[in-house]
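Colleagues,

Please find the record for the two-part complex below.
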Amino acid sequence: MMSEGWYGWKGKILRVDLSKSKIVKQELPKEYCRDFIGCRGINSKILYDEVGPNVHPKDPDNVLIWGTGPLDGTPIGMGRFSVTTKGLRNSIAEGGLGGFFSPELKFAGYDFIVVKGKSEKPVYLWIDDDNVEIRDAANLWGKTTWETDRIIKEEIGDPDIQICYIGPAAENMVHSAPLISGLTHSGCRSGFGEIMADKKLKAVAVRGSGGVELAQPERFMGLLEELYEYFKPENVMDPWYLTYLTGPPHNFIGNDLGNIPTRNAQQMGFENVKDVSGEKYFEKYYARRRACFGCFLVGQSSWYEVTDGKYSGTCGGGLWNTIGWGPLMGITNLPAILKAVTLCNQLGLDWFLVCYSIAWAMECYEKGIITKKETDGLDLVFGNHEAMLILLRKIAYREGFGNILADGVDAAAKKIGKQSEQFALTIKGQECEIMPQRNLYVCALGLATSETGPDHTRWYPPYAINPATFPIEKLKEVGWNIDLDKAYQSRLPEGKGRLLKWLTDSRASLESMPTCLSIWRGKYHVDLNYWANILTAGTGIDFTYQKLLTIGDRIMNIERSFNIREGFRRKDDTIPMRMQTEGQPQYHYGPLTPEKLNYMLDEYYSEREWDLKTSIPTRKKLEELSLEYVIEDLIKHDIEVT
Amino acid sequence: MKNQKKIHVIEDLCTGCRMCQLICSYEHFRAFNPKKSKINVVHVDEQGIYMPIVDCDFECKFNVENEVPKCVQFCNTGALIYSTSEEAAEMKRELVRKRAVQPLFKVIAPWKWPFPWKPWPFEGANDDE
């Protein structure tokens, strides 16, 4: 099973053409690994090379790429993988998810799956080590993700296989539908679920019996032990940390600072935050702990069970959910929120789409723009959790009013009109994030410039480094010259461009190894030397702090170039109108005015050496990153590279 | 025989991360390959339940410093313990007693994580919001 000369990577790309039912196994080019590491990096490279602007997202020529990295299958990888395609908004669509799928794919002997073409009838892909088949999925089409999981496992006759699938929402082409793996792990935010549904590919199931070999196993284990010690419960864990990581209690702290978007972000603090808080969650609904593959952060994810009341019997898992769900729609009923999260996983819905579109509809209803006539009789006042759950199903199946919301907030606002665009919270046609934009300017800049549409994982955590965790003098040695005083002031436009460049570059290379953003914390937030060492120990290729930053820069540039080729320019790097015009005096912050945003964009582009007017990467920058072929390609498409 | 230490499992605490399974395969084959491991963590995903099954021959090298096997050392949850059967029984009793009076997250593994944990902020704490 083992490929010769490969450590970390398995050295194989599995290419599947659904139109011709053809399966080819291809060698992974070594220079890809050196220049882009793997996962998100190589995904972007393959997408850039193979999908040009003449390919419509729904063309059979559009590719859908599952990418794992060299450290997948080891505890460092934490089961993360990345899925990339050209999304229906024409931008690059990339999303990561965890769980157990990607290690299994590595154990089966593949680093990447590249799916092309379109099947005429529903199919699923079954990978059993060397045997790969395209199987009929007629009985799976229309089924929820949890049913699909059960049926495929029964069909194969092995409960231990790993599967990722799409739900009915994706089949109905609901905006930004995610891919779900292992029942509750979802890759959201750019809608590759729709592309998968368009290709009539319901699921990918995999079983592997191989292993992942390391170049320097002893060194790797030493480094793993170091990380493990750092994150040992008695070294870092405290109830606050534990609960913080799972999400909800964040409400309390965020609420006092004015960071919780409430009622479609009309307010930034929720008066009933206690009802949807983590304490309540932990006292009443927290049933068990769960983890992704090899994760030693014990408090990361959880399994919840609702045992009483109207929503009794609801169970599911996840993290980070309730923040967006509760206050944004003014909902105080925690079991209803948990029910909605479970439904999202089962129906394959993007929870950000659901919560932003329903919150938007609720504001329309409040302002009298829509009435019960349009909402199919639903009383869409803020806080009506029953209506929210009914509408959620309607969105997934495109029934009645749900059909309007299923196209996303932007499209719905266009259809409804009457100034409802004013409070449609979207960036690049994608529903917003819960990151506080007016209170943490680096978040606003990150969301505005993100190539995939608003996605916090591209630069999270959004903070300048803590000098206690990494000495400043050492930072200078590795070329880190961020003005910490300025970077720390969250509502100062100055200094954010350089900070964001470092954040996005470093996250891009870490996501390509890959590893989970939950362990890029504390010391390991900054200490890329550690990551370079462990990557070297795993793969046998020499990586350094500086090399990782360069690779990150390269990934960011190729992703930006992809978007440029699709026609995205500086004007698309913006934040919702509401954030630019409305302030929150009670939390002592004003709007992030266009002037401030433009100042930050200027700073960011000049740090990146991109053209200030258009945000096209400059010739000098691309040459520096040995992306000469990108220059040629851009010129071929009549794009001026200066 | 009764005082001999063994690997015991406290299933309630398992998060299903398969760390022990990976470490075990590494100790035996110097590669991460869970299918060859002597431990199998059974997943019941739809219930969120995880159960490690340990079929160990104790042939792997022990971690000399702490005198526990590597799989136990790397189990952050406290679900794998290396003890005599009497000690294991006492730990299980302790867990059940604590769970009766405290919410689950406070009693995760009393022998591994004494509660209360460090007050926040502490050195090395994450510089998050």
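The CA atoms of residues 63 and 129 of chain B lie 37 Å apart.

Comments are welcome before we finalize the supplementary table.
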